[in-house]
């Protein structure tokens, strides 16, 4: 019997050679159309299949290091409003969809800028025209300056370039049959099991060394970890949890990569409604949050204290902003001053998503010590997102990573235009708008020093008004077998997972 | 026989219609906006409105309902809101995995449960009976996500006989069978626990009947008394439980699918619910309901085979 099973196992294992097997904590991929790829599982895969005009060097998220990708060079006008990109020649799309031309780039950027065909259309608000000057030159004209035009056309979110012919011919079907120019092409998706990708032999940087990627969807952490331990996976999505990291680092032949971008958790306080329309209660919450304790709980290797309402390392971040320190006595005094000497109970809507729920439960205990009781209404995740956008929770625990420039975070979370419940809403749960002038002025400023000053001023205003309380930043974690060489040092990935490039290889 | 089948199928139409309506209402009562789920947390209301219009969610609810019923009656369930792939294609891709698991688990359940149940009945209150009851209680008490992980630790990590990842290419039959063993055992042993208990009590009832005593008095060999006279009469409740349990297996296999990383209908349903994929949920529920109707029909037909009086009635 055992011999029969071994024979079956050998038969079953025949096709594994040179296949990179990656385990992801998700039920299934959603849309692999890059302009709709919003979840982590989709973003990770899309980055293997598509390019932007420019790119972050693999392993980095530093906007200052953005380098050529599909465009071999670019120029900008003195006023920063006209940008011309010169495309590489001979770049081939997957599946025989031909050579990349300026038409594909114009089509892709216009598509990404249109609300009905993209989840990232808001990023292109400043775009006036996108036109093909000749088959290998594209010109973008802006209505107003943006903090990082290159950031919008990089290999991230709406910046990915698709095949015009494939997207037009396949329509909605493009979501599961995408055509890009990246090092890997999608072969097929088996629902709830895996996405299989094959090397793009005509990739313009050279044929990838890895022949196939098997991207496995394994929602159960226990099963995914067992599969990794059993050498059925080469790369494994990890939880940002110290115990997980320590356990995996102890496994023989395993490396754990912890990398950027950090996801900043903020307690957003609705400043327009009771009880948080009283700044003393907001200040009491700020004093009651013990960031050091949060980091000890999550793990020093995978998290760090939040220091501002913009994550650390983002262009424009400042820690010099008047953030209130942990001080329980002061928190209690402020509550008493605000008319709540016996404490206060606040009803809060929160998600049942385990990672977010456990974080909120620690916050709940910290606030309880100061006399602030959070009455958690735990709901399913999609319901949570709907209810917090209907102003049903005066305190919103929210964790997010964005493009690493202060403008994006400030505009989406703390600009008056982004207030939830309004026609232009994004994720401003605090309803603060006192820094709108600084955020707007910084966005269009062409003077880098002035821009930094304005962003710092905005953070000062927002932190001092306690629009939100920064808690901690949680980093990304993946484990890999030591025979997997990414081909670059992994310190960051805007796609939220390791980039598999032409240089990635599996050694013996 | 044909008339019997036709009558049963006709009788299932009102059930299907009621299910269609209920499903339509329930998926829309659940809070959560499919457009926001698809577009993510940076989407503007403008983008969400554009997507809602594209998905047909901007028309009145009655229009949506009539469109859904009209499409369902013609066998067209439309496309998934999330993946844009036709629902029947999505289901066809995972249904064979669900059928594999269900049939294999049923096989394990029957092959283990019926003999053990008979054996326990024949040794009532003896060591074997007590052991069978205890083991079946353990089988019923252990959730599959616990027993599944135990099996993985033992057979995948310790002895390295089976893989942890249980999904296989449909065209690769050896791989498919190989990867089916642990999931089928996990799910099948729970079913075996049920069947053991039902078989035991049905056999005890059957063996205490007058016709058993008569058969023994006539000198019929004990083995024949048990298998022909006893088991045949005890088989109706066993078939009933197996029929009901197959329906439960299809729906409840989701935990087994998650632990063993297998594709299947259960996981698709959970995924569609999380993503508020209305069209996918509606299509899946109708298909699921249809499968249950067919399983019940087969159960009824088996009653007729086992007991001709059922067919006459």
- Considering residues with a beta carbon less than 8 A from a beta carbon on another chain, report the largest interface and each chain's count: A-B, 62 and 65 residues
Work out the helicity level of chain B: over 70%
* Number of DSSP strand runs of chain B: 0
Average of pLDDT of chain A? 94
Q: How many helices of chain A in DSSP terms?
A: 15
Radius of gyration over C-alpha positions of chain A, nearest whole angstrom = 24 Å
Mean residue pLDDT of chain B:
87
Structural class based on helices, strands and sheet pairing of chain A? alpha+beta
Order of helices and strands of chain B: HHHHHHHHHHHHHHH
Strand proportion of chain B, as a percent range, falls in under 5%
How far apart, in Å, are the first and last alpha carbons of chain B? 13 Å
Relevant terms:
heterodimer, A: four-stranded antiparallel beta sheet, globular, B: 313 residues, mainly alpha
List the helices and strands and how they pair.
The complex is a heterodimer of chains A (508) and B (313).
Chain A lengths: L1 H12 L5 E6 L15 H10 L4 E2 L11 E2 L2 E6 L5 E6 L14 H11 L14 E8 L2 E6 L6 H4 L11 H7 L13 E7 L3 E6 L12 E6 L3 H9 L5 E3 L4 H8 L4 E16 L9 H10 L2 H8 L4 E3 L22 H10 L6 E8 L2 H16 L2 E8 L1 H8 L6 E6 L5 H9 L21 H9 L3 H17 L3 E14 L2 E2 L19 E2 L2
Chain B lengths: L1 H28 L4 H6 L5 H10 L6 H13 L13 H36 L4 H15 L2 H15 L14 H6 L2 H27 L2 H8 L4 H31 L1 H6 L5 H10 L3 H29 L1 H5 L1
Helix pairs in contact in B: 1-4, 1-14, 5-6, 5-9, 5-11, 6-9, 7-9, 9-11, 10-11, 11-14, 13-14
Commentary on this structure:
The complex is a heterodimer of chains A (508) and B (313). Chain A has 508 residues and is an alpha+beta fold. Chain A contains 15 helices and 19 strands. In chain A, strands 1, 8, 9, 10, 11, 12, 13, 16 and 17 form a 9-stranded mixed sheet that branches. In chain A, strands 4-5-7-6 form a 4-stranded antiparallel sheet, covered by helices on one side. Chain A has a two-stranded antiparallel ribbon with strand order 2-3. In chain A, strand 8 (184-190) and strand 9 form a beta hairpin. The radius of gyration of chain A is 24 Å and the shape is globular. The two termini of chain A are 32 Å apart. Chain B has 313 residues and is mainly α. Chain B is 78% helix and 0% strand. Chain B contains 15 helices and no strands. Chain B has helices at residues 2-29, 34-39, 45-54, 61-73, 87-122, 127-141, 144-158, 173-178, 181-207, 210-217, 222-252, 254-259, 265-274, 278-306, 308-312. In chain B, helix 1 runs antiparallel to helix 14 (278-306), helix 5 (87-122) crosses helix 9 (181-207) and helix 10 packs antiparallel against helix 11 (222-252). Chain B is globular. The model of chain B has no long low-confidence stretch (mean pLDDT 87). At the A-B interface, helix 1, helix 6 and helix 12 of A face helix 2, helix 3, helix 5, helix 7 and helix 8 of B.
